Amino acid sequence: MSLVLLSALSTLNYRNLAPGTLEFPEGVTGIYGENGAGKTNLLEAAYLALTGQTDVSRLEQLVQLGEKEAYVRADLQQGGSLSIQEVGLGRGRRQMKVDGIRSRTGDLPRGSAVWIRPEDSELVFGSPSGRRTYLDSLLSRLSARYGQQLSRYERTVSQRNAALRAGENWAMHVWDEALVKLGTDIMLFRRRALSRLDELAREANTALGSRKSLVLTLSESTAPETYAADLAGRRAEELARGSTVTGPHRDDLLLTLGDFPASDFASRGEGRTVALALRRAELELLAEKFGEKPVLLVDDFTAELDPNRRQYLLDLAASVPQAIVTGTEHAPGAALTLRASAGRFTQIEPQEVQA
Ligand SMILES: Nc1ncnc2c1ncn2[C@@H]1O[C@H](COP(=O)(O)OP(=O)(O)OP(=O)(O)O)[C@@H](O)[C@H]1O
Ligand SMILES: [Mg+2]
């Protein structure tokens, strides 16, 4: 895949954003403005248009209050040619088009964007499911096959749960066989990817000036060698509970900072730093896989970070072909600076930025 640049982003009825088109140059675009101006909304719209993905469970939230439908469009420059990605939102549905042709998320370039934001701390302090989502979403972008196996696995888990609740003991060997096959694939893929992810996250953590070492490990509820036996061993319990408790859908990505699990012992700033290291590792892995660095979206470069770590984020943004960096202060050294206010974005001349 060749380099992807977001040359323009258009939105209509997207949260509080005024309808219109913003053009982005190569290098860093800095966006500053007061709380509630729409900075996060703009990055969220950009990420959606670039990747087709959003972490919002209710798509209606993205549609401006009082409206029924919303629309985002990314004009991408990709190896000398222009491509248009459109996402329409409405009635809880998402429709995508690439160059006018109806598409699915899987058809969009898989390594085109990384989004870094203060909420990433939830990766560290939140529940295992957030960390699994981080891992699964990254691995699905690295390998389409992983994504396929994962959705097959998840479907099998819910069908097996239904069979458990119905007390269909006689059918369990069929579900177990399917589960072991798919689940083993997932565990092996995760293990392979984790060794590189761990290396990259450690490096990033050190570069961030952390004096504590960071180690990533998988906490698995079972293992490929013992999966079938573990399922058989917990059959009675799973029948009683009506749910599958053994398998990679229960695994966790353990983040150990110094001698302790970061989830329980890290300070707020340390947690943000660990999350930053994970995002940096994500960026590097995607760059390794696709041969080009993704568009980097950085939300609130000032939040919870000391001056050194802010500088790290700004340096990271300057090191990729294109980045959009928001904050309540402006990012120094940006190629373009926009001021955000009430969902509108106006260009600020360089001399005004200095002032
Ligand atoms: N569906 C929606 N319709 C209309 N307005 C919305 C919708 N969803 C969110 N908003 C509004 O968008 C505004 C801007 O939110 P946003 O998170 O982008 O601000 P921000 O500039 O990132 O602020 P901060 O500096 O506090 O992070 C909020 O005031 C919110 O109420
Ligand atoms: Mg914000």
UniProtKB/TrEMBL annotation:
One of its GO terms (molecular function) is single-stranded DNA binding. PANTHER family: DNA REPLICATION AND REPAIR PROTEIN RECF. This is DNA replication and repair protein RecF. PROSITE patterns: RECF_1, RECF_2. HAMAP family: RecF. Belongs to the RecF family. It holds the Pfam family SMC_N. Residues 6-326 form the RecF/RecN/SMC N-terminal domain. InterPro entries: DNA-binding_RecF, DNA-binding_RecF_CS, P-loop_NTPase, RecF/RecN/SMC_N, RecF_2. It comes from Deinococcus cavernae. Gene3D superfamilies: P-loop containing nucleotide triphosphate hydrolases, RecF/RecN/SMC, N-terminal domain. The keyword Zinc-finger does not apply. It is found in: Cytoplasm. Its main location: cytoplasm. The gene is recF.
